[in-house]
Amino acid sequence: MISVEQHLDRILSTVKVIRPFEQGVLDAQGCVLAEDVTARGSLPGFTNSAMDGYAVHAADVASAAPDSPVVLPVVTDIAAGNTRPLSLAPGQTMRIMTGAPMPRGADAVVPVEATDGGIARVSITARSVVGQHVREEGEDVEAGRVVLRRGTLLGPGQIALLAAAGVARLRVVPRPRVVVLSTGDELVEVGRTPGFGQIVDSNSVMLSAAVTAVGATPYVVGGVPDDARVLMDTLEGQLVRADAVITTGGVSMGAFDTVKEVLSRVGTMQFDKVAMRPGMPQGFGVLGDEAVPVFTLPGNPVSALVSFHVFVAPALRQLAGRPEPAWPPGYLTAVATETFRSVPGKMEFLRVILDEDRARLAGGQGSHMLAALAAADALAVIPPEVTEVRPGEQVECLPLLGREAP
Amino acid sequence: MISVEQHLDRILSTVKVIRPFEQGVLDAQGCVLAEDVTARGSLPGFTNSAMDGYAVHAADVASAAPDSPVVLPVVTDIAAGNTRPLSLAPGQTMRIMTGAPMPRGADAVVPVEATDGGIARVSITARSVVGQHVREEGEDVEAGRVVLRRGTLLGPGQIALLAAAGVARLRVVPRPRVVVLSTGDELVEVGRTPGFGQIVDSNSVMLSAAVTAVGATPYVVGGVPDDARVLMDTLEGQLVRADAVITTGGVSMGAFDTVKEVLSRVGTMQFDKVAMRPGMPQGFGVLGDEAVPVFTLPGNPVSALVSFHVFVAPALRQLAGRPEPAWPPGYLTAVATETFRSVPGKMEFLRVILDEDRARLAGGQGSHMLAALAAADALAVIPPEVTEVRPGEQVECLPLLGREAP
Fold this sequence. Notes:
Two copies of one chain form a homodimer.
Chain A: H1 4-12, E1 21-24, E2 32-33, E3 37-38, E4 48-49, E5 53-56, E6 70-78, E7 93-96, E8 108-111, E9 121-124, E10 134-135, E11 146-148, H2 156-164, E12 169-173, E13 177-183, E14 187-188, E15 199-200, H3 202-213, E16 217-224, H4 228-239, E17 244-248, H5 258-263, E18 270-273, E19 276-277, E20 281-287, E21 292-297, H6 301-319, E22 332-336, E23 340-341, E24 347-355, E25 358-361, H7 370-375, E26 378-382, E27 388-389, E28 394-399
Parallel strand pairs in A: 6-7, 13-16, 13-17, 14-15, 17-21, 19-24, 22-25
Antiparallel strand pairs in A: 1-12, 2-12, 3-11, 4-10, 5-7, 5-8, 6-9, 18-20, 20-21, 22-28, 23-27, 24-25, 24-26, 26-28
Helix pairs in contact in A: 1-6, 3-6
């Protein structure tokens, strides 16, 4: 029996970041940069107005005040999108819109609110200083500078910066492609009615959803029979498109545990009992020329989803090049509102409902019990040496993926 | 000038949940149930073994112990997927795998670990009680019972429960389809080099990414010119496929603010100054026969993304039928590590970097400054009546979407 930490360590010391790929900036959302990126152009690309108002020589309006307005002729309008370079002579003004290029010579913008809004001539009632309401070329980003570093996760703000700085394509770590393979003669596909002794293959849709929730791309290969040859052929056929493979079922102590039987002989696969509940039988290793990580999860649905959260999700994040999040923390602390019991010597993952910072059991805790799993917000993690958490005591909780949408 | 709360209230009291739609269970991930769903079958669907071991009459092994084993003949094996109903006579046993149907008559399972693992006959070294390691038909879910309620957000565990209970299709609130429309003669599309006076249309890719990050589906209509007729025609053409429209630009005080000019005349559109920085000029209303909500955001990228977080994201969640999350809270509390300054009378949204529970400014706070936006983890929210947050004081922060992947 190995500990949860030992199994996770083995996984994370094996899994490598996926080879980077060039993508369009929008398609790179949620991916991690695989290179430092430099700005092609400056931001702003030209000195422009920060306000709707009037471009002036600041010296011309130095004495302007509500009771002593300065009146200047308005020689033209400058709209955003004006591509003609203009020059402003002293003693004149131009009406200018937010984002429009400043005319040469002008060194300040008087906001429209500090004027009478005149079109041919304008009465200005507030003084201005050099640089006021002016955005200088390059004050945000200088061309040629690194704007984002390798390792940055790309969200809306990062994508905006890259696009604005003229970067349309860039090298990122692609989204992991994950083959989800469920095994068992007893499985019927979703939508068919199971006969006596059969069950719906709910693991494949559950894990597909979990893979999606962690930002990776699932490929479901459902209902592989308990046949060594078929399983091996299926696996080999899938390895070419997979950055990782997840199987469920066929790994416990039974006489017909095909996954364990077949995979024990190949690659670096290793099958262990992990000191956890649920999810004790775990297998992990790499297969094929590309050393694709393979996770063999137990077939009980609760065991499979717990194993996904504890072992697979961190590995998929590592494949995607993401740093483990310092913030928000993976775990959060809640206060138990009832007694949580746990077996000694195993890390226990209880399905709990969170109500603000209070946690209560979600219902039946059997590893086949889907109703409680579906009602739960999080897994309360009880360390191996703890056998009881009393009401009012704190407990670490691992939020379930997809339970709260963004 | 209206408050942030007033503008948000007007939006949220207008926006309705999108009409439900029937979808396959896997495609419904991230969606909210629009109906109570009842189980078609029981879970488990048949009484089965919770362990790999031996099905017995518990009475036969009542005296079993390590020093006085009970030896029973093994009459057959029962694998998971066995669809033949079997009967077990007293004094006999059947080897049974996890999930395999219990034979009639048997009332307990002895785990393989408490036996010698025999195949023709087995030596059992631990007593058993009725029901031990047996999962009763329907103990998790009874057929016909409501398994998930209307309003439930569907993640991996919920999808597994529905699939297992025989529900393949169900009515959910669809993902909102959001048209992102950027306006301005100065815009060039991403990947093209802007000339003098032009800028890359980074807002459309930024908001498209933000829409995706909130679980909705974006349709980008980029670079609409500042022409009233073109804008109106474009909008009308897009309304048919939109559950919401977001525009950026053209809503401030300028003489060429086409969006404001065109939309002021139609639907229930209303343009307000909102007491916030950045993001003061805001427009909202509904357009067309379907009363599609339209958000006109300011054109400065930081203003646009702040406005998205504060006004559009809550509205899209409401369109999608999601309850505002009680947990995790939208806001988190951090401690300022430097002085944050804010104008009086406006709610200020400062771009900050979080380091555990400490917040510091991300850099230049101008509403055009993308570098600081791209470096930030969150928006520190400074209420209108506060003009200064001192080091060590607490500040509420709104995490930026997509800044931390799941």
